[in-house]
Design a protein that fits this description.
With 268 residues, the protein is mainly α. It is built from 12 helices and 5 strands. The strands form 2 sheets. Strands 3-5-4 form a 3-stranded mixed beta sheet, with helices on both faces. A two-stranded antiparallel ribbon has the order 1-2. It starts with a helix and ends in an 11-residue tail after the last helix.
């Protein structure tokens, strides 16, 4: 554990300004370091499913998710032009019982078939989930969560002590990137991702009111079984109301997007 903390402490320390919202963020881990660590962690997290041919195994679902993601990423690049150089990647994990999706630093994302199938998502609702995850990446939330974990030491110590590493032989920054995926987002992070995600979706030509219907479905599902997604994306009771307000604000962007060509950006 000392070696782990020492390795993380060598990363760029300090505070930074959120590149999208302007909020001050704790950044003991630089975004560049978080992107490098996430690249390693992403590959190792997906390795077991890849070995079992459960990554992008349904071409029709892959094409659907890919098409939506490429439209959303094109809008993300408008937010932060430097992200055009990110190696954007979206993997569809065939796991029908898992209601989850996640994003890591640098645009490494995954979505489980369970969230698509069990919630019977429309394209507009699916775009809200993917847009929300892209918003986390744009806002450097992975680096922020890695920094918070390092600052407190608590999450790192607990994680290492329990051995809950999903079979990953990882240390240092790579392990911290995995922890960042599995730690809950703060209410502030969720509010940022909601606002940015719904705007990305509207600008990409997806209905903004789908955000509220998505979370209504999520709430109904959580009444019978807690989705994994909610463990890392906690939902306050006011979320649907707040999303409805955002939807009305974003409606003009949606209407404008529907009048013109919809750009895309390559995503692996």
């Amino acid at each position: 554990m000392v070696a782990l903390l020492t390795a993380l402490a060598l990363l760029l320390p300090g505070c930074a300004t959120n590149p999208v919202t302007g909020r001050s963020q704790l950044m003991l881990v630089s975004e560049g370091s978080a992107i490098a660590a996430s690249r390693q962690a992403y590959a190792e997290m997906l390795a077991p499913a890849r070995e079992e041919d459960r990554i992008d195994s349904d071409p029709r679902t892959k094409r659907r998710v890919q098409g939506i993601t490429e439209r959303l990423v094109a809008q993300a690049v408008r937010y932060r032009p430097e992200t055009a150089d990110w190696d954007w990647e979206m993997s569809v994990i065939d796991e029908p019982d898992t209601i989850n999706a996640f994003a890591m630093a640098g645009g490494k994302m995954a979505i489980y078939t369970g969230i698509i199938q069990q919630l019977e998502l429309t394209d507009d609702e699916l775009a809200q989930i993917i847009g929300h995850e892209i918003a986390h990446a744009l806002s450097s939330h992975s680096a922020e969560k890695m920094s918070v974990a390092l600052a407190s030491n608590l999450a790192l110590v607990t994680y290492a002590a329990t051995g809950e590493r999903s079979g990953l032989a990882m240390t240092g920054a790579g392990l911290a990137a995995v922890i960042a995926v599995q730690l809950p987002n703060s209410r502030q992070m969720e509010a940022e991702a909601d606002r940015i995600g719904i705007e990305l979706a509207a600008r990409a030509g997806f209905r903004p009111d789908a955000a509220a219907s998505l979370w209504s479905k999520m709430a109904n599902k959580s009444a019978t079984r807690q989705p994994v997604f909610l463990s890392t994306h906690p939902a306050p009771q006011s979320r649907q109301r707040d999303l409805a307000v955002l939807a009305s604000q974003m409606q003009p962007l949606y209407e404008q997007a529907r009048r013109g060509p919809l750009p895309t950006h390559p995503v692996r």
